[in-house]
Fold this protein.
Amino acid sequence: MIVNEIRLSNQSKDRLSRLKGKTGIQNWNTLCRWALCYSLSEPTIPTDVEYVADSNVEMTWHVFGGEFSELYEALIRERCIKDKLGTEPETLKKYFRLHLNRGINHLSGTNVIKSLTDLLELAVK
């Protein structure tokens, strides 16, 4: 398990709230999984920015990943290896959070996603 608990920033919470309204997806963890995978599909390393976990949205690693939590951990570990960042626990934790936040920012900021269909079409590209 990369982290025990995930807490979002207020900015991420607001962005995900807008995505909830557009897509009809009501679970924070489901949208966070989409965001993580979207960021992992980008070829660049996320920018190292300060992360402020100041919202009331929090979930455990198991809630985030569900039955696929080991797969998400493997994806993050593999990406850190590919990016030559190492796989120390602190590195995995840091880059998980950076990928999650970048994914949330990209999904909410693209203005391409206006419905669940738009999100699904993004996934097949």
Observations:
- Residues 5-124 form a domain with the Arc Repressor Mutant fold (CATH 1.10.1220.160).
- The mean pLDDT is 91.
